[in-house]
């Protein structure tokens, strides 16, 4: 069972999301919040698997709430939803530690799949935003740190290959096929890569790979 906290300042949006999710037996809504500060408190109390986070809310917005939830070190992962197709929001959300970013006009099946993916430790980004995000991020990329270099150096050659593949957007199945590995072996490599470079999920691994210059935009 995947538990979800819905965060949105509009009651009709919260109701709609709740009704959609409750149609799926593997998903359950454990709570709702109307603004960022309430989301932070509710996440600490309820420890949901996934926080479905709006961006624009009165008081503390979804970006700051995401940052505080991630910095708390809890188990909850954040999937950001917004009506605004603006690179700045997506960029800020992912830098704050969100595990995914979708637009509110996503199809119901896309939203449900996104929640399941984030709960499983994968990442999800709205179609069409990936290229924009990479370009925007690379333009502002500050130099990498010695600590990041140390973490990169801790990877084996195979683990570097896997990190490069993750940053290129390959799925575990694609990595297995292209590197001639069993998918179970790829999953083990991915887990070790995330642990060694000190990131929570594949989105943050992509950011790390661009930070250290392991991959660059095509």
Automatic annotation (TrEMBL):
Organism, scientific name: Streptomyces mirabilis
Name of the protein: Response regulator transcription factor
UniProt keyword terms in alphabetical order: DNA-binding, Phosphoprotein, Transcription, Transcription regulation
Residue list for modification 4-aspartylphosphate: 54
Keyword Secreted recorded: no
Domain Response regulatory: 3-119
Residue ranges occupied by any HTH luxR-type domain in the UniProt entry: 148-213
SMART domains (alphabetical): HTH_LUXR (SM00421), REC (SM00448)
Listed PANTHER family: TRANSCRIPTIONAL REGULATORY PROTEIN NARL-RELATED, TWO-COMPONENT RESPONSE REGULATOR
Keyword Transcription: yes
UniProt cross-references to InterPro entries, sorted A to Z: CheY-like_superfamily, NreC/VraR/RcsB-like_REC, Sig_transdc_resp-reg_C-effctor, Sig_transdc_resp-reg_receiver, Tscrpt_reg_LuxR_C, WalR-like
């Amino acid at each position: 069972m995947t538990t979800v906290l819905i965060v949105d300042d509009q009651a009709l949006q919260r109701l709609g999301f709740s009704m959609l999710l409750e149609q799926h037996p593997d998903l359950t809504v454990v709570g709702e919040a109307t603004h960022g500060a309430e989301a932070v408190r509710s996440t600490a109390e309820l420890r949901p698997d996934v926080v479905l986070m709006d961006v624009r809310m009165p008081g503390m917005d979804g970006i700051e709430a995401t940052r505080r939830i991630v910095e708390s070190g809890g188990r909850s992962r954040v999937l950001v939803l917004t009506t605004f197709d603006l690179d700045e929001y997506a960029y800020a959300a992912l830098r704050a530690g969100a595990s995914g970013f979708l637009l509110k006009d996503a199809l119901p099946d896309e939203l449900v799949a996104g929640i399941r993916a984030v709960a499983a430790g994968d990442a999800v980004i709205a179609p069409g935003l990936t290229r924009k995000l990479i370009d925007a991020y690379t333009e502002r990329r500050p130099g990498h740190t010695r600590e990041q270099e140390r973490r990169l150096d801790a990877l084996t050659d195979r683990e570097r290959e896997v990190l490069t593949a993750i940053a290129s957007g390959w799925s575990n199945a694609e990595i297995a096929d292209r590197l001639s590995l069993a998918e179970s072996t790829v999953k083990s490599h991915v887990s070790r890569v995330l642990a060694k470079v000190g990131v929570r999920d594949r989105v943050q691994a992509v950011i790390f790979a661009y930070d250290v210059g392991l991959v660059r935009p095509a």
